[in-house]
Recover the amino acids of this structure.
């Protein structure tokens, strides 16, 4: 009986460790190869505090949580600044370094032999010193970890994490500082792993470096993958199977000698086969999602008529009209020896749709990337609503009121249509981890309002019926519409549209042109439209800039530009 | 003290040469395919065991071990590309998925080696044991061979990439896949080619490593760790950078023993990587992006 309890406790502890890694790997989509180290930091901190200071185990856990959280953030900060692959390198390196330190810093960790005689935890006169009494404690701790994870996953914060996983630059283009989210999830994941690690230390009353080796880090990854990355219950399933499996193996005669090798072999094979045949794991992310999507406020929305969906336009702010919405002076960019954009200057008047036309590869999209901070210009200035926004990161550009769409759509495929639009909502209190805990009501209120708004925009493009479907399952036209309503949901007054009708059939092109027209007029948006299709441009804009080979060749009324034989020559490549 | 310093320098060059070879072998694969080829360490172990077994179980001379190591490495490396990575790419797997699958294969493979050969180390047989000395320093003929062979191979690779028709194709596929496709190159063939080249180079490294030490199940772990560290340290797109970074890592690891106890060598390596990436994220020899 004790043996079964022992295994149950292990499953619970591992479930919380795996859940903490699931936050990082499943939701944010970045690999951490040193998760065992985070739990080790928790275990050693708890052990040392309990032995040397004699404080209650909750103190040890809390300190471990903080220490591992800070470590996670510090580790993630420099590596994530570069590119995600560096994180694999840094975390493997960190794992090896810390393991080495645990073995060699004998003054603190007692080296290979490990720390023994960790006092059993006690609370309110109860002592948890046997599997019987420890099981409720382990259950309690695991439940707390799962509740925290639940709160984070089902919040605006968790939604941004998923958006980062799906397409980081698209997420940044919606005004999210993705680095902040990734660093925070590393801190939280590391902290929760420390709680799992300290639970292990208190249960075994003994720890050694070998409980926190790279093998354990990989073991945790296998559990996340097998249970189902980004599924809330996946960690429990993964931990139950993979902790339980070697125990079952013990009962097969003749395996006693080779059990460790066999276990390693099975982990490896399981990991590889799951990646090949079922990368979503046993429980896929959106399993049973359909029934859950009776969202608060969605009924009330259906009562909203089409007309009500669009607000009456606000009167234009007088003092803003006098300034151009966007003013660009002398923007330049070269890649190696290639000058992609040469001395481009353009002005977007408030409340108007301006076109940017030119042959393929003339640098239109590069101009977009320069304005929105996705590329850093070699020279020139960008003023948005009178403020200098040159060289500012994308999320700052969005908060100054300018958002962009992408030629290749870049919706978040693995999220629902509604989530796609919800992510884009500006200034969400629930994107702060502290507010999730300390301002739950405000977060809930805002979420209701944001869902209402999101439905309003989905209604506008006619997608409200499909709100609960995965974005990837929709048609190309519908995906463009998701992108459009996502862009509108940022509430930015200035929109940069990059070929909104590219690769669509004529019917859909018409539909989207009319939508853009309607929106721009009713919501008084300032729009810069990059377009290759001249019919689209003609239908939408009065004034346009003509670009070729990275330079603005002409600026004027669209029908004049199109009628100009010299420009037509450049455009159609007639020599 | 001075004598010790010279000896450490020599040891650093020997280790650094192995790491440089490891770096370019992993780097050519990574910069071309963008696969975080975790199973590279399995390739190293299999090549090392193959060489040790051929020389100890058969009467064949030691250079047959050299050939066997290369053949085993190329067969395994290309096998992984054909049977694992190609299928994953066909299933539209993400880079992370491919990385995890590769890791799974490496773990399972090393467990198999451990199962069949237990943890007893195997050594190469039939090698002449010759001690050499230069000034105050001592080294073996194998050490000297390791340094010479490693740098010849690195030089050869750089030459191939610069002059050979397929070398140029490799660079094209690595730097701009779409453009390379438009030029009529089949990336699948180029991928297979770089797996063959990278695995052959690492196989040579494994033979030299086994000749110097012995073959054991986790023998690939440290050279593999150093290989990708060298690639990120040197700059992903620069093969010469990988070689230089590998040499630096080897020297740092060995010379670091002057100031820190030997157990801390991995820490020195990691600190170098950490500092360089923070100061110069694109690596030592890569042109600044953008």
């Amino acid at each position: 009986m004790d043996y079964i309890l022992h295994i149950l406790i292990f499953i619970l502890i591992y479930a919380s460790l795996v859940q903490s890694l699931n936050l990082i790997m499943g939701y944010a989509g970045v690999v951490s190869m040193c998760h065992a180290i985070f739990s080790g930091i928790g275990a050693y901190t708890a052990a040392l505090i309990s032995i040397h200071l004699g404080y209650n185990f909750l103190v040890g856990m809390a300190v471990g949580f903080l220490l591992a959280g800070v470590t996670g953030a510090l580790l993630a900060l420099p590596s994530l600044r570069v590119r995600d692959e560096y994180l694999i390198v840094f975390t493997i390196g960190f794992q090896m370094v810390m393991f080495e330190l645990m073995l060699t810093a004998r003054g603190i960790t007692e080296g290979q032999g490990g720390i023994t005689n960790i006092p059993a935890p006690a609370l309110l006169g109860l002592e948890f010193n046997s599997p019987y009494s420890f099981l409720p404690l382990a259950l309690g701790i695991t439940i707390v970890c799962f509740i925290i994870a639940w709160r984070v996953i089902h919040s605006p914060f968790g939604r941004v994490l998923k958006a980062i996983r799906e397409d980081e630059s698209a997420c940044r283009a919606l005004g999210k500082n993705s680095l902040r989210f990734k660093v925070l999830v590393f801190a939280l994941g590391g902290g929760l792993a420390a709680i799992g690690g300290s639970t292990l230390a208190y249960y075994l009353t003994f720890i050694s470096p070998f409980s926190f080796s790279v093998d354990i880090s990989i073991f945790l990854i296998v559990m996340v993958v097998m249970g189902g990355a980004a599924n809330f219950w996946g960690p429990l399933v993964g931990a139950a199977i993979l902790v339980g499996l070697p125990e079952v193996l013990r009962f097969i005669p003749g395996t006693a000698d080779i059990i460790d090798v066999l276990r390693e072999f099975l982990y490896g094979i399981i990991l590889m086969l799951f990646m090949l045949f079922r990368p979503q794991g046993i429980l896929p992310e959106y399993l049973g999602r359909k029934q859950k999507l009776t969202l608060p406020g969605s009924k009330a929305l259906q009562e909203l008529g089409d007309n009500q969906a669009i607000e009456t336009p606000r009167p234009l702010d007088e003092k803003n009209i006098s300034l151009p919405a966007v003013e660009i002076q002398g923007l330049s960019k070269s890649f190696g020896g290639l000058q992609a954009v040469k001395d481009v200057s353009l002005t977007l008047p408030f409340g108007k749709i301006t076109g940017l036309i030119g042959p393929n590869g003339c640098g239109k999209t590069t101009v977009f990337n320069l304005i929105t901070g996705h590329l850093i210009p070699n020279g020139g200035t960008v003023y948005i609503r009178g403020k200098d926004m040159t060289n500012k990161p994308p999320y700052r550009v969005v908060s100054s009121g300018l958002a962009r769409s992408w030629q290749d759509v870049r919706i978040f495929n693995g999220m629902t249509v509604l989530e796609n639009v919800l992510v884009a909502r500006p200034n969400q209190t629930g994107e702060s981890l502290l507010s999730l805990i300390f301002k739950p009501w405000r977060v809930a209120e805002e979420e209701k309002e944001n869902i209402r708004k999101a439905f309003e925009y989905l209604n506008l493009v006619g997608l409200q019926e499909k709100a609960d479907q995965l974005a990837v399952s929709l048609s190309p036209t519908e995906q463009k519409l998701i992108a459009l309503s996502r862009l509108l949901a940022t509430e930015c007054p200035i929109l940069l549209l990059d070929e909104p009708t590219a690769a669509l059939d004529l019917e859909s092109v018409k539909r989207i042109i009319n939508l853009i027209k309607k929106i721009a007029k009713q919501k008084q948006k300032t729009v810069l439209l990059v377009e290759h299709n001249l019919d689209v441009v003609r239908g939408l804009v009065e004034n346009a800039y003509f670009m070729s080979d990275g330079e603005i060749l002409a600026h004027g009324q669209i029908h004049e530009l199109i009628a100009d034989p010299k420009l037509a020559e450049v455009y159609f490549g007639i020599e | 003290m001075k004598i010790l310093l010279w000896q450490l320098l020599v040891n650093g060059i020997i280790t650094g040469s192995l790491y440089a070879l490891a770096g370019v072998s992993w780097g050519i694969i990574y910069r071309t395919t963008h696969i975080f080829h975790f199973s590279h360490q399995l390739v190293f172990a299999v090549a090392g065991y193959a060489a040790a077994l051929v020389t100890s179980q058969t009467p064949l001379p030691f250079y047959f071990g050299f050939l066997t190591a290369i053949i085993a490495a190329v067969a395994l490396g290309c096998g992984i590309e054909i049977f694992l990575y190609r299928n994953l790419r066909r299933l539209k797997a993400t880079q992370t998925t491919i990385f995890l699958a590769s890791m799974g294969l490496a773990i399972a493979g090393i467990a198999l080696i451990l199962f069949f050969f237990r943890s007893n180390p195997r050594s190469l047989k039939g090698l002449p044991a010759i001690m050499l000395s230069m000034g105050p320093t001592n080294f073996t003929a194998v050490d000297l061979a390791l340094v010479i062979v490693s740098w010849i191979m690195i030089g050869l690779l750089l030459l191939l990439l610069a002059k050979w028709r397929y070398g140029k194709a490799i660079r094209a596929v690595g730097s701009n896949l779409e453009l390379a496709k438009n030029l009529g190159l089949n990336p699948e063939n180029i991928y297979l080619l770089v797996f063959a080249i990278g695995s052959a180079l690492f196989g040579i490294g494994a033979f030299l490593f086994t000749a110097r030490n012995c073959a054991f199940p986790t023998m690939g772990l440290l050279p593999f760790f150093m290989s990708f560290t060298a690639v990120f340290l040197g700059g992903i797109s620069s093969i010469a950078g990988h070689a230089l970074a590998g040499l630096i890592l080897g020297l740092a690891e060995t010379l670091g023993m002057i100031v820190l106890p030997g157990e801390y060598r991995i820490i020195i390596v990691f600190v170098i990587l950490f500092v360089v990436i923070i100061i110069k994220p694109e690596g030592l020899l890569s042109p600044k992006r953008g």
